[in-house]
Structures are given as structure tokens and as C-alpha cells.
DNA sequence: GACTGTGAAACTGTTCACAGCA
DNA sequence: TGCTGTGAACAGTTTCACAGTC
């Protein structure tokens, strides 16, 4: 399949073709009228725009179950990430290979970062250690941090942090599950009990049920502490 | 602190107070004019709306590093999730306790689901096994699936799937990292090279740098295959 | 006086619909 | 003729600003 139309791509992605064309147009005019998009060229252009053509060395700090899972995760290499080092505070881990990479002790953290020109760090430590690790990473030159520890990290301006909460996706599922149950109940009791306030409390958040398996706005932005 | 104002909450959440008040108003009128929101009551109302007051039994299928990490994750219990069972296809895992819960063989999958009234399943298997596990979960009564395997699952209507890709967050960081580098370069070359197309290609996506550490719309919705 | 709740205004994002090109 | 690229219409979201209540 050398070319693809916006219609085909849109169907595969579960969006409408106008949106897809408009989005692509922001990257440039990479399509051909009457024909569609050249697949190979399009993939290259999008990859470049997203930074997939670059090599990003990353370090993973905290080699417990999660750190090991991340180290073994195959998806990284194909997206331009290279695990430059695995770091753990436990001296008995030092030297042990995980996913074929020997674990290094956290004393080495600063020199590893500097020698490999690492800008991206992954924190998979227990909550208690996360802020200290974060501070050391930043001091050594890391400017982007992916945090799996259940703490909010404070960082200086210019450093990006993204926090991944493994339970938030479950919570979103439970939220919809609850709605499903509620709708059944409402359907049974001919005229359901009205919601306390505005009618759009029960808004159009039904999933498209199409190919939509991604994390996106399905839940109010504000959560309890 | 018995009560809290929309202003205080908004500052803590990194949003503006009007938005917060409007959002809360969709749940009902739980505040008091001149006073603010009663913290305990507010937490309860939001928890209820999000389904946190319910007990959700979940099963985790695939007890490798990631499955074990999930089983050990403390955040689940506090959000109303109860790990009803751990399931793995490897017979040598059977009976072995992980996070204090004995692993069960996948032959038991259907009976575990039925006996525990499980509606939510977590798939942490290799990609190859995911669709089969998914089909069995659905056949046994699961209607919400959290998929960590790098495959898109097909499910019948009425079943929710959320796919978690551990590398997508890294990719978002790399995307911003690339922009940081690009901006520096542009700043150095007095008048930077113009983007191929529209001016808003480089849009206002700078992170607020405030308390914003969550996954939210920072990246185009359409990704390469 | 302080703070919520909410219409209306401003803005942002999506979809339509079609001119323009291969 | 078929499909992109894009102004213009539309829809949805956020913010303003203030009336209403404690």
C-alpha cells in the first residue's frame, strides 16, 4: 500500500477525515490531491516531527518490579529510546544484569548522566526516595522526568515532569463501569431519578466504542486530593 | 481545615477558580456562599461521583514484572480496588504468593471471574497472549479491560478497553525535549528558519510549569502506526 | 464582606463544504 | 474524477463578571 487517503486513515484511527487532514496540514502539505498521502514519506515526516528519528538515552532509577518491567519493555527501542543505564540504591543489585544491562549503584548517578549526555530520567523508586533522586537527576543535567512514584515532585523551572499513576486508568474504567450500572438501573425504573443539578451532568461522554483505546478526556479534570 | 474556597483549590490544582466552580456545579451545589466548600463533604461527594466509594474486585492476568508491580502497587486499595486474583499461564507460578496473594493458573480464569463477580480485568501478559486472555475475560463476564500488552484488542460492543503504553509518556517528554533544543537553536540564529507551513505549528503548548504533572493534551491526537 | 453559582462573552477546537490541483 | 488543503460555520469549553446568599 504505497499511498493512503485521509478517509482510510481516519477510519483506522476512529476520527473524522477533515480533522485528520487539518491536523496533518499543520505539519506541512505532505499529501497529493487526487491521490492521498505517500505512506513512507508521511511516516517519516510525522516521526521526525515527534522526535522519533532521534536517539534518546534514558536512565531508569529504581530497579524493582516496575523498573525491571520498564527495562524489559520492547517498545522503547522502536521509538528511539535507548536505556543508557539502570540505577538502584541497593548495593546487592549492583552488577546484576536486568534486560541484559548491568545495574549500577546510585553513587554513579551523576557520572552516568554526564558521560551519556542523558536528558531524560525515569523514576521507579519507592515514594520516599523519589524527590531526592529527582533532585540529583536535575542537578546532573536531566531536564525531563517520568515519575512512576506516587509523589508529586518539585522541580525548578525548565524541567518537565510527567507523573504516571497506574491506578488512574483503572479508576476511569470503574467510572464508566459505574455509569453502565447506573444506566441499566435508570432504564429499569421507567423515569429515572433526576440528577441533582444541571442536565448536562450526564453529558455525551459515551465512548465511541470504535478503535478508541487511548487515554483521553473522559473524566472531569479535577480530582480529589 | 474544615472548609476550602474555590480560589485555594484552584491554586492547588493549577486551574482557575471559575472553572473549578463550574465543574463542581455540575455535581450539584455543594458549596456555601461566603464560606466555601466543606472539605469532608466535598471529598465524599466527588468520591461517590467517581465511584471511589464502591469496592471493585479486579483480576490481574500475566504475573511477570509488570503484573507483580501492579499487584504490589499500594494505590489500588485506597481507590476502592481489591485485587481478587492473580492469574498466570505458567504452571510453575501457581501457588506462589505475589504481594501476599497466591498466583492461580489460567485454567481457573472463568471460575474466578464468576465467583468473585469481577467486572474489571487487567492484562499484563505478552502481546501474543493478550487477545486470547481478553476473549476469555469477556466471555466470563468482564466488561472493562485495562490492557498493558502492546496490542490493540478487539472486543464486542459494550466492553471498554483502555490501552496503556508505557512508552507514550516518554515520547511526550522527548517531544518537549526536542522543542526545547529547537527553541534554543532558533534563539541563537536571530531570525529562525520558518516552519514549513502554518505559523501555529509551533503553538502555545508550553507547559504551565505549575503543578501540572498529569497526562493531558500536549501532543497531536494522531500518531503514526 | 466573602464566596458560590451561573448566564453571557470570549475563545478554542471540530466539522462542513468546496475551490484547487494531480 | 478523486482527494487534499483550508476558509467559514458550528460546537464546545473556558473565563468573566456579577447577582445571590451566608
Q: In the CATH hierarchy, what is the class of the domain at 56-163 in chain A? A: Alpha Beta
Distance between the termini of chain A: 50 Å
Largest sheet of chain A: 7 strands, mixed
Number of helices of chain A: 8
Oligomer: homodimer
CATH topology value of the domain at 56-163 in chain A: Rossmann fold
What proportion of the residues of chain A is helical, as a percent range? 25-40%
User: What structural class do the secondary elements of chain A suggest?
Assistant: alpha/beta
Principal-axes shape call of chain A? globular
| Average pLDDT rating of chain A | 84
Radius of gyration of chain A: 23 Å
Largest interface: A-B, 89 and 90 residues
The tally of beta strands of chain A, per DSSP, is 10
- The neighbouring-strand order within the major sheet of chain A is 6-7-5-4-8-9-10
Give me the strand/helix succession of chain A. Answer: EHHEEHEHHEEEHEHEEH
Main location (chains A, B): cytoplasm
Function (chains A, B): Modulates transcription in response to changes in cellular NADH/NAD(+) redox state.
Subcellular location (chains A, B): Cytoplasm
Binding site for NAD(+) (chains A, B): 62-67
Amino acid at each position: 500500500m504505497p499511498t493512503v487517503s485521509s478517509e482510510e486513515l481516519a477510519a483506522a484511527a476512529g476520527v473524522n477525515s477533515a480533522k485528520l487532514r487539518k491536523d496533518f496540514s499543520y505539519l506541512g502539505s505532505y499529501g497529493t490531491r487526487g491521490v492521498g498521502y505517500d505512506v513512507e514519506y508521511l511516516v517519516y515526516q510525522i516521526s521526525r516531527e515527534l522526535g522519533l528519528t532521534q536517539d534518546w538515552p534514558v536512565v531508569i532509577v529504581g530497579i524493582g518490579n516496575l523498573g525491571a518491567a520498564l527495562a524489559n519493555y520492547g517498545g522503547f527501542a522502536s521509538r528511539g529510546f535507548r536505556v543508557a543505564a539502570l540505577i538502584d540504591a541497593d548495593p546487592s543489585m549492583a552488577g546484576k544484569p536486568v534486560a541484559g544491562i548491568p545495574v549500577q549503584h546510585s553513587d554513579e548517578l551523576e557520572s552516568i548522566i554526564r558521560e551519556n549526555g542523558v536528558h531524560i530520567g525515569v523514576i521507579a523508586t519507592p515514594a520516599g526516595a523519589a524527590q531526592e533522586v529527582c533532585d540529583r537527576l536535575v542537578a546532573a543535567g536531566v531536564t525531563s522526568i517520568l515519575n512512576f512514584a506516587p509523589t508529586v515532585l518539585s522541580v525548578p523551572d525548565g524541567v518537565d515532569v510527567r507523573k504516571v499513576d497506574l491506578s488512574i486508568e483503572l479508576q476511569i474504567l470503574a467510572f464508566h463501569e459505574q455509569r453502565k450500572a447506573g444506566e441499566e438501573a435508570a432504564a429499569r425504573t421507567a423515569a429515572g431519578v433526576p440528577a441533582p443539578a444541571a442536565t448536562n451532568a450526564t453529558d455525551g461522554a459515551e465512548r465511541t466504542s470504535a478503535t478508541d483505546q487511548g487515554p483521553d478526556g473522559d473524566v472531569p479534570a479535577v480530582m480529589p486530593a
